[in-house]
Structure formats: C-alpha cells, structure tokens
Amino acid sequence: MAEAISISAPTKRLLRRCTPRNDSLSLTLPQIVNLMMKNKWHPSFLFLFVILLSTCTQQGTTNREWTEPVTGMTFVRIPPGKFMMGTPPGEVGQLKQGPTHEMEITRAFYMGKYEVTQGEWQQIMGDNPSHFKTLGVRFPVENINWHEAQMFIQRLNALNSQYRFALPTEAQWEYACRAGTSTPFNTGEDLSTADANYDGRYPYREFPQGSYRDQPTAVGSFPANGWGLHDMHGNVWEWCEDWFCEYPTEPVKDPRGDCETDLKVIRGGSWYFNAESARSARRYTHNPHDRGFSLGFRLVREIVDADFDE
Hints:
Elements: H1 9-17, H2 29-38, H3 43-57, E1 65-67, E2 74-78, E3 81-85, E4 101-105, E5 109-112, H4 118-125, H5 146-159, E6 164-166, H6 170-178, E7 237-243, E8 252-253, E9 264-267, E10 284-286, E11 295-296, E12 300-302
Parallel strand pairs: 4-8, 7-11
Antiparallel strand pairs: 1-2, 2-5, 3-4, 5-12, 6-12, 7-9, 9-10
C-alpha cells in the first residue's frame, strides 16, 4: 500500500499560492524543494511535483495582481530591490539637483495598478469632489488634499481589517515608477503623448510636440510600465506619504520622509504640466491642505508577512 502523504500547514499554504488566484505569490524552486523534503515526500514524486509547480514560479515577481474586495481596486505586487533614486548628473530637469543615492526597498508591497478613481472615491466617501466629475467613474479622482486622501485610507482600512493601505512613500513611488529603468522616463529618454497624458505642447528637451488634451483621461488609457502600473507619468499628480526632506548622500533602506517642513511630496506630473514634470525622478510639492484639478493619488497595500501573503 502506498504510504500516505502528510502535508504540513506551510506546504498547504504554498499549494494555495500556486493556484491561479489573483493574489498568488510564487516561491523559488529551492523553497519548494525545502518544504517538500521537510514533509518527507518520495523523491520521484517530488521531481514531478516540482516540474508542475515550475509554471507558478516562472511567472516573475512583479506581475501578480490582487483585488481589493470592497471597491474592486486592482493592485500589483512590487518586489523588493535596490535602485538609484534621484536625478542623475546630466539629466535635464529639477533645478535643485538632489544627490542621486542608492535606495533599497527591503520588502515587497502592492501598488495600485491605477490612480484612485472617482467611482472608488464615491463608494468609500459618498461624494465626489472632482473638478471633472462629469467625465465618469473611471477617471481619476482629483481636487483632494493630502488629509482627505488619508481619510479615504482610514475608511478603506476599517473595511479591510486584515490589510493595511497607505499612500506610497516617495521611495516606493519612484521605485515602482522606474520599474527597473534608469532613464528620465520608464519609456526611455522621451515621453510621447501616445504614452502618457501631459501637456504635449511642451515636450522634453528637443523631442517633437504632442497632444494637449486639456483634461484627465480614464485610468489605464495608456500602456503600463514594465511592472504593470498605468499612468505613473502624467494624468494627475499623486500624493506621497512623505514630507519634502533633503535627500541623503549615503545608501538608505526604506526611508520615510520626516523633517521640519510644511510641504508634502507629490509625484508623476499631470495633464496640465509639461513632460519634464513627469520624469521618474521629478520631485514637486504642495501644502497638505492644497487641492487642485490635477492632484490625485494612488495607494499601496503593505505586506505584513512577506513569506505568506494572505
């Protein structure tokens, strides 16, 4: 009689991770083998099992999506890693050049695939403060200040007690925007108005002019970056969690800007601004009480347990 196979709780959780769910989290083959051996699986069965699970581990580490159950907001899992943050020497833009410095994001996190929409805001807050409210529910919510974004987050967290949502830190935002690139834009040296919604009458450097749409566009109207995020360049500015602080000169891990200042960081540019303002490294600021018709936000969902992300 074949020996009964006993599967430990961690292994069962691994198996759930490798089923086609939108919040799946793949582990490496060595991790799978280690878990299987701890359960004393027969080597021949282990070999076949690893082959089957390899399809789950080959999906990469940045394309898994998770759907928030109340609003249906989609989030993309962003892996940990290092990058050079800031405007490098020779890149056109940012009159006051902050020092380029090595930044490490030590934990994976989920980033909103899109900017928060008017429909999602209405679902949580019950109103719509947007200047362009007649455009439709799939357009980004705008005309909100930093404190109002925090109110939205508090209510969303109250409806999702097992998860924690927040504004992205400035480091998380730039890391996710770049998606492994080191050029001015995640599209390369140039950003055309076929790739993002900004004021195309004012292109970057000597590149050709493009369209000026005079309003936001529906979220996801343009191609995603290499990690599956839309509208990281243009459409509406996005509030970050951080206060506007001087950049460090040494390598840093998981910073949160906290200093004596009256200004919060916003990132990404907008339909109302030029191409340069949409650069991956471009820092801009507003008082947290400010509102504007091109000022919105997107969320992150923090991963508390990076090994078993339920």
